[in-house]
Structures are given as structure tokens and as C-alpha cells.
Specification:
This protein is an alpha/beta fold and about 220 residues long. About 40% of the residues lie in helices and about 10% in strands. It has helices spanning about 5-15, 20-35, 45-50, 90-100, 110-115, 140-155, 165-170, 190-195, 205-215; strands at about 40, 60-65, 120-125, 130, 160-165, 180-185. The longest helix has 16 residues, at about 20-35.
């Protein structure tokens, strides 16, 4: 099956695209986009892979669902399009970066700048129906993104995995921790952050410290 994904990933994931679950998934997604408003835009569904090529993966951040409000989702987890106000979780991410590294709040919540440096911003489910969180779960996306995580875990070395919240921790359960650096903390959503489960995790400086130790370029957060 032809999938419009960056060639570096196409080569690595080609076996997934021919599996029955993936064909069913693509049929479902095409029907949903034809019948109702869905996010992100069709040409942004695989944006996380377009901005962060397979060879360039240094860090993986796992999210759950794309944002389901107008013009928010751009195919990268936690990221919003330019000009869109920051959702609460993203505000808390930027607050932690400011406290951890002294980097002031950016002008945009568009995290393409991270992805271009080798941060794979991977949602477990890559599409969603407008105003209906979780509406495209259990259709096959989770199986696909599990395969992505497994491939990175098995074939690469010294990748930093940032698992924020219970969902991401479950999703990252099969990562080979003898080969990679895994950091876990609470979710940056207000519900979790306000209970003391997010702030002070220092994941951003810890990530850069590890990358530096391995002779890799640090991420300019």
C-alpha cells in the first residue's frame, strides 16, 4: 500500500503498510475525512515523521490524541499551529522548560522546530474527529504506533524516550531500557501538574545531558 510518509520511514515500516489492520485503518480514516471534519489536515497526518526522519531520531515524546479543536492539531503531539493559543498542557511544558533551562516562553506553540532537530512527537492515535476526543482510537493507529516504537527500540541505540503520564508509560512498556534512556513523569495537563506530578522533572536538561554524554547534538528546546 502506498502511504504518503517520509521515505526514510517508508523503508522501515513498509511491512506494516501491507498488513490487514493497516488497510482497514486507512479505509476508516478516508471515510471519516470524507464524511465529517477531522484533524489534523490530511497532509499533516504523518507530519511527525516528515519533520523527524528515521535516521535523525534522538528523542521520542509520546502523546495520546491530536487536539480536536479548529486549527490546533498539526500532526505533532502537544504542538499547535502558528498563531493558535497554547493549550494548558503546552503551557505547563513551556513553564518546565523555563524553570529547568531558563528559556523564556516561545512566541509560537508550533513544535516543528523540535521535530526538525530529531524529536519524534508521536501521538498514539494520529487522527481525531472534531470535538470528539478519542474518536479514532481502537481503529488500528495504536498498533501502528506500537510498531514505530518497537522498531526504534530494536534498531537504534541511545534514544531518549520521554514518557509523560500513565498512558505514555504503558505505551513505552516494551522499550529496551538497556539500549535507551527512558525518563518518566506525570502528564503536563493541569490535573496532573497541579498535584505535583509534572513540575520539577527536569526532563529537558536531563535529555540534553544524556545526548551530550553520547556525543550527540543537544536539543534547542
Amino acid at each position: 500500500m502506498q502511504v504518503n510518509i517520509h521515505p526514510s520511514w517508508g523503508n522501515v515500516l513498509s511491512a506494516e503498510f501491507d498488513k490487514p489492520y493497516f488497510e482497514k485503518l486507512i479505509t476508516f480514516v478516508k471515510q471519516e475525512y470524507a464524511q465529517t471534519r477531522c484533524y489534523p489536515k490530511g497532509n499533516h497526518i504523518f507530519a511527525a515523521f516528515d519533520h523527524c526522519t528515521y535516521d535523525n531520531v534522538k528523542v521520542v515524546i509520546i502523546g495520546q490524541d491530536p487536539y480536536h479543536g479548529p486549527n490546533q492539531a498539526n500532526g505533532l503531539c502537544f504542538s499547535v499551529s502558528d498563531g493558535i493559543s497554547f493549550p494548558p498542557s503546552l503551557i505547563n511544558i513551556f513553564k518546565e522548560i523555563e524553570a529547568d533551562l531558563g528559556i523564556p516562553f516561545p512566541k509560537t506553540g508550533n513544535l516543528e522546530r523540535w521535530a526538525d532537530q530529531g524529536v519524534l512527537l508521536l501521538n498514539a492515535t494520529l487522527t481525531v474527529r472534531e470535538s470528539m476526543a478519542g474518536s479514532h482510537q481502537n481503529q488500528g493507529w495504536e498498533e501502528f504506533t506500537d510498531a514505530v516504537i518497537q522498531k526504534i527500540s530494536e534498531d537504534k541505540q541511545d534514544v531518549v524516550f520521554l514518557l509523560w503520564g500513565g498512558f505514555a508509560k504503558k505505551k513505552g512498556a516494551k522499550i529496551d531500557r538497556s539500549r535507551h534512556f527512558v525518563l518518566e513523569t506525570g502528564h503536563p495537563s493541569p490535573l496532573s501538574a497541579n498535584r505535583g506530578l509534572w513540575f520539577g522533572n527536569k526532563h529537558f536538561s536531563k535529555t540534553n545531558g544524556f545526548l551530550q554524554q553520547k556525543g550527540k547534538p543537544e536539543i534547542n528546546w
